[in-house]
């Protein structure tokens, strides 16, 4: 099966943690549920209608942070809507704490994620449709890094044929990954080059196909927020492809 790699860029990102209360906490990188929503927006799928089509048994997705990012809290002035007239702000604003993901240098930097996309046999047609839309820049809806006001741009779309990327099974092998890695596959964390900041998160994996946004699975992963690869001793299946400067190792979230 082919592999599609692409980059998502934006000034701001917010991927709300599902267990948050009125304080809108954010993951540092988009969970699989967010990424399937982005691809559904690209294709013009109706809300909550694509969970079976983009299930882990059909679509394989990996994600990594390309440049250093940070989180900071801001306050949004939301409207308190209790009646029709409140849309004009009659009841006054309600301030809500909101955690935003940005580059370290907000003026010159961008939040950038590298996405890896492939499919199992049932998702082959879907993968081809996504690939064509990306290559033609034919998006049904504008893409965003979370909320609609966090505008996103797609860059560096590549389609690698089956023979250009490879799968390997490691046994306690020291490796560097540019993607988030499921923690169950990590035997040890190794020293990396430069200032490496590592985070652990429990990311939503996919929803049940019941139109109720009920979580079906979670992914416990490690990743870096400093733009450096994650150096670990690894046991399990991983994938790689060669570049002009070496090779890039990555893992799908569903592994």
Task: Give an account of the 3D structure.
- The chain is mostly beta strands.
- Helix content is 10%, strand content 45%.
- The protein has helices spanning 32-43, 124-136; strands at residues 3-10, 15-16, 26-27, 59-65, 69-79, 93-103, 111-119, 153-160, 165-177, 181-182, 186-189, 198-207, 215-224, 230-243, 246-250.
- A hairpin with a 7-residue loop joins strand 12 (198-207) and strand 13.
Secondary structure elements and pairings:
Layout: E1 3-10, E2 15-16, E3 26-27, H1 32-43, E4 59-65, E5 69-79, E6 93-103, E7 111-119, H2 124-136, E8 153-160, E9 165-177, E10 181-182, E11 186-189, E12 198-207, E13 215-224, E14 230-243, E15 246-250
Antiparallel strand pairs: 1-7, 1-8, 2-3, 4-7, 5-6, 9-14, 10-13, 11-14, 12-13, 14-15
What are the key terms here?
single chain, 255 residues, four-stranded antiparallel beta sheet, 2 helices, 45% strand
């Amino acid at each position: 099966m082919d592999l599609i790699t692409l980059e998502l860029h934006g000034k701001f990102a917010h991927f709300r943690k599902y267990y948050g209360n009125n304080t809108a906490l954010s993951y540092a990188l988009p969970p699989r549920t967010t990424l399937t929503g982005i691809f559904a927006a690209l294709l013009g799928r109706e809300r909550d209608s694509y969970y079976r089509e983009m299930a882990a048994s059909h679509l394989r997705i990996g994600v990594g942070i390309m440049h250093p990012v940070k989180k900071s809290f801001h306050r949004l002035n939301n409207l308190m809507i209790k009646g029709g007239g409140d849309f004009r702000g009659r009841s006054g604003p309600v301030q809500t704490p909101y955690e935003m993901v940005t580059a370290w240098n907000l003026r010159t930097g961008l939040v950038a994620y590298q996405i890896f996309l492939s499919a199992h046999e049932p998702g082959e047609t879907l993968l081809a449709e996504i690939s064509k839309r990306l290559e033609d820049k034919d998006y049904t809806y504008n893409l965003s890094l979370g909320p609609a006001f966090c505008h996103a741009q797609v860059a560096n779309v590549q389609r690698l044929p089956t023979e250009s990327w490879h799968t390997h099974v490691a046994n306690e092998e020291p490796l560097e990954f540019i993607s988030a890695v499921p923690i169950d596959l990590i035997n040890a964390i190794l020293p990396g080059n430069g200032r490496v900041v590592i985070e652990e998160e429990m990311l939503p994996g996919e929803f049940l196909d019941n139109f109720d946004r009920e979580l079906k699975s979670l992914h416990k992963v490690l990743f870096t927020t400093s733009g450096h690869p994650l150096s670990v001793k690894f046991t399990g299946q991983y994938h790689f492809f060669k570049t002009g400067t070496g090779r890039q190792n990555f893992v799908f979230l569903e592994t």
